[in-house]
Amino acid sequence: MRVLIADDHDLLRDTLVLFLEAQGDIETRTAADLEEACKLITNEDRFDLVLLDLNMPGMNGLAGLKHALALDGGQRVALLSGEATREIAEQALEAGAAGFVPKTLPAKSMINAVKFMAMGEQYAPIDFMTAVDETAKHPLAEKLSPRELQVLKGLTEGKSNKEIARDLDITEPTVKLHMKTLYRKVGAANRTQAALIAREAGLIAREAGLY
Q: Which residues carry the post-translational modification 4-aspartylphosphate, per the record (predicted)?
């Protein structure tokens, strides 16, 4: 079995290589960005599975996933992420991804997921896909759309409009439009105030990896 791991975090990439190659029947190749990954897909023998990090250079949200899927070779491509929302995971699966793999998966589960997807099945952890979003019960959250909540989460993490747009696979003008409406709904004058209101109200958790 041949697996391509594309991620710009050296430690995570090397750890995955160790996990998979320890199985004895899995050969791995690695890339640090989408361009390098696509070159390997195009120039080497077919990979049974390609794992793409959602936020590595060149991905541009789900556009990178779709590009890799469209390359010749019929490779199966899965999304790898430590902070994607359930909505992004669902969109990836709908776009034809072999699966969605959270970086928080235990080693054994990660290996099983890779083998499962390489055999032609579609994978997504049930607990992640069916988790109840506690923020939806918050009075302030009820005023916001799911997309506005995602934009607000990006604000609390200090992300720029460009970064939020990339993460959500939408345009910057769309991000600005969502910001304008959520400012009005939460009673904020700017992005800093909106982030403070969200945190003080306990609407968005401070910890990374909430989703």
A: 53
